[in-house]
Fold this sequence. Notes:
Two copies of one chain form a homodimer. By secondary structure, the first copy, chain A, is α/β, with parallel strands linked by helices. The first copy, chain A, has three domains: 2-268, Nitrilase/N-carbamoyl-D-aminoacid amidohydrolase; 274-472 and 518-522, 3-Layer(aba) Sandwich (Rossmann fold); 475-516. Chain A is 35% helix and 17% strand. Chain A is built from 16 helices and 19 strands. In chain A, the strands form four sheets. Chain A has a six-stranded mixed sheet with strand order 5-4-3-2-1-14, with helices on one face. In chain A, strands 6-7-8-9-12-13 form a six-stranded mixed sheet. Chain A has a five-stranded parallel sheet with strand order 17-16-15-18-19, with helices on both faces. In chain A, a hairpin with a 2-residue loop joins strand 4 and strand 5.
Amino acid sequence: MKIALAQLNYRIGDFEGNSTKIIRAITQAKAEGAHLAVFSELAVTGYYPHDLLEKKEFIAKAEETIRAIAVHCTGITALVGGPAINQSATGKKLFNAAWYLADGEVQDVFYKSLLPTYDVFDEYRHFEPNREFRLLESGGRRIAVTICEDVWDEQPTFSSFGKDKIYSVSPLQELSFMKPDLIINLSASPFSHNQEAWRKDILVKKAKSSGLPLVYVNQVGAHAEMIFDGGSMVIGGDGEIRHELRYFGEDFRVVDLGLKGENQVQPVRETTEKIHDALVLGIRDYFHKSGFAKATLGLSGGIDSAVVAVLAVRALGAENVRVLLMPSRYSSGHSVDDARVLAENLGIRYDIVPIHEAVESFERGLASIFEGLEPDVTEENIQARARGIYIMALSNKFGHIVLNTTNKSECAVGYGTLYGDMNGGLAVLGDVYKMEVYRLARFINRDREIIPENSIVKPPSAELRPGQKDSDSLPEYPVLDDILYHFIEMNESPTEIAARGYDPALVTKVIRMVNINEYKRFQAAPILRVTSKAFGAGRKMPLIARF
Amino acid sequence: MKIALAQLNYRIGDFEGNSTKIIRAITQAKAEGAHLAVFSELAVTGYYPHDLLEKKEFIAKAEETIRAIAVHCTGITALVGGPAINQSATGKKLFNAAWYLADGEVQDVFYKSLLPTYDVFDEYRHFEPNREFRLLESGGRRIAVTICEDVWDEQPTFSSFGKDKIYSVSPLQELSFMKPDLIINLSASPFSHNQEAWRKDILVKKAKSSGLPLVYVNQVGAHAEMIFDGGSMVIGGDGEIRHELRYFGEDFRVVDLGLKGENQVQPVRETTEKIHDALVLGIRDYFHKSGFAKATLGLSGGIDSAVVAVLAVRALGAENVRVLLMPSRYSSGHSVDDARVLAENLGIRYDIVPIHEAVESFERGLASIFEGLEPDVTEENIQARARGIYIMALSNKFGHIVLNTTNKSECAVGYGTLYGDMNGGLAVLGDVYKMEVYRLARFINRDREIIPENSIVKPPSAELRPGQKDSDSLPEYPVLDDILYHFIEMNESPTEIAARGYDPALVTKVIRMVNINEYKRFQAAPILRVTSKAFGAGRKMPLIARF
């Protein structure tokens, strides 16, 4: 049996655009002699539409679109992800479904059983879980149709409080009683740098334990926080990956399940390269899917803004990136030079706008109110916020979206000014720890020096007062990042983290900084998610808590 | 049987503070001869701890605290809400539980069956639903112990796409087969201006249909977005409300279920008064629970900031509120006068800081970049952002939290400047439509003129360019608010809204404004929720969508 894997980049709620892509793939699959074309989870709406699923006109349009796609399924069949109304008098109003299209019509609908409702996932908010299991008979095969989480009844226990079985049913086990010949999984599995390995582990395990071939079709593309990496696969009943589609790009392949040729898989890549590619896709899709082409950012001469500028140029083109250099009275001369060299290396337009005059006008305005008081973080924040005004003015006047350059380490401990350097439409590095930012810079410079070496090697500084260094108020980044990683991604307790060899007082201090800065993150820009636990939708903490 | 209803204000994660309150209530209940003291849902942790529930040290501390409370339960019993570990090998790791304490120990644990996962609720993220039903026998009574949503198997269908039965099980029906004599409900039911009526409807209906007395204990107090209004009740099997505790404050009452005295209920209040009281509680708890006492805001002379200033004074005291008057070159003379009169009426400190000098310094800094371009919204935003810098400087220097004054109508259509007048730690009016702001102003002035009449009657204006009025770019507020209400709260389609008698083009324009400004709301301050659908956690829309 020949099956087409259609790994497409959808736009949420763009029924016309999404169905055009789906129909084009069906046509191509038919031309290549496929019996069945498989699309990803919620393909017709894009994953994830959130509370648009509560709008009846959205659901009506989704079903109408699926029926229009079905018309193209003659001489070929298709499995297309989309919502389906729950006709029962009780239960949530929708199912997350795989629509089976054949002979020009909708023939059947299969519902998702396991609804991920943790981290960035929120599916029980909208969907009723399926509880009745049956196979799809198509082309003489008995197919176990599953949707994403349905094959994840066992989860990696990366949090130390984790359980590996958070569901009380295993859909594949239920379906295996019915003797299928093939497993198909329609997915929308977002990228994190360790997700690809976890995903292969579980899929290989499921193929092997059932002894059945497994066809896995993932979505690709980004929608603000979540980046979907693609990497659709066909795995043999022996657990071998026979086919693997592209990462971070659309792909399409017709596979003959009966043929045993050479395995066609993707080259192995390092974590840093994956993160680099994910961020480039994340920026590009954020802009293009929201109808914008141009980005701006403040270039400080430091490593974070340098890396963001490079990623922006790779995502949008040098002609669409424009930067501001905004030196203060505390900026070192080399900061402006480094920023200028980078802009020239990238061929992007830059302007230099010193901020001291604006800062001084605020200081004069506040002089009588602040009389007799020492300068403190207030004055530092005025500088960051004056830069924020300049960059937003550029954004407003020319229609550039501001890219935020805060990294995950800073975001965690609140080392940034709300309404100042925390401004931006998208936080490119908000899920990238500082040490990983260094690796990204080295990766970017691997062939030639794009980011000035000086930006990479100089001690990190916000340059908001004379001689300031990040290490004045924070531990050195290798230590800080490791503490943060075990607290945030691994959910370890302070005691467990200290047991890794850190001063308990330092651990307590860092965790306290993370906790008290929840209010800043509440108002932060959306963060491109590249780890298993990003700030944002995936980490919901009470704003006011004493713990 | 005498039962104590303990309606307390908890702080999330403050195990020491919460248990001190709980133990004090148990002691008092015992002194008053109660057999059973009932507390609210998740009392020991405060509702809702969000992802703190994923921290094993948090869960351990919760259980330890419950066992410490149990020691005080001699000669009295108690039902206390708290998380409980799911000991089964499969399923989510926790239950949302009611712990039954007697004879100085934990005697039993009852689990919640219906887990609200919609709007602001997120319980399936952390909890496994209960599926096994049984009664509690205590003091010779057979008690149906339920937790909040367990009695809401039928819901009000306020959204036009809504179903009234979103669950496939009815816990009260299951429990009624076991012939209980009494229903107890431990709740954490947040305020919205229509919630009190819905709550009474459903509780009265459940008491009546079962013919059993129903004891309902709610939490009171606010945690950033959610405000819990209390109003605990005892309802007779005839459906009559026999006891009703305070709204918006702690309360405690020992009730003899056998006695039929005069009903002791709360006075009926109008919607505007409820919203007023909710907002005052929301401000007070936000500050006090996060360890702050002092608020600041910009007073424009308009109605929104005037109402917020009054509410802040009522929540925190005049000595803890300090305001800035920040006139621009476009501010009318009476704006400053109105603001000054209000500040004097309230007895709060005010300073006047004109913004023109700072604004001009930005314009000079941008002159070469903006050469030859006409002024537009960019220059308006610079004014709003310069004010933002001043108010944040005051906040940073003196430790005042900034109160945001954006109302729901503005928040909906994006009529506000990100990093400017959208600044603030808490958005007091973010869930209050403009027309309701007028009603609040009238309510505040009902006995004497606190808010200058001129602030109420003058045409609304942002005063960011000469002669500007809100109605230049928005429909009149009665129209705008009605369209927004049916779109946001009632989830009606554009067609349905137009059928109410509005120009379809206007409806489309307003809805488009709501949709394209999702990116602004993503970075907005937390909003005190007073309607059934507030912006924030209860309305999750994709940031990038085409629908």
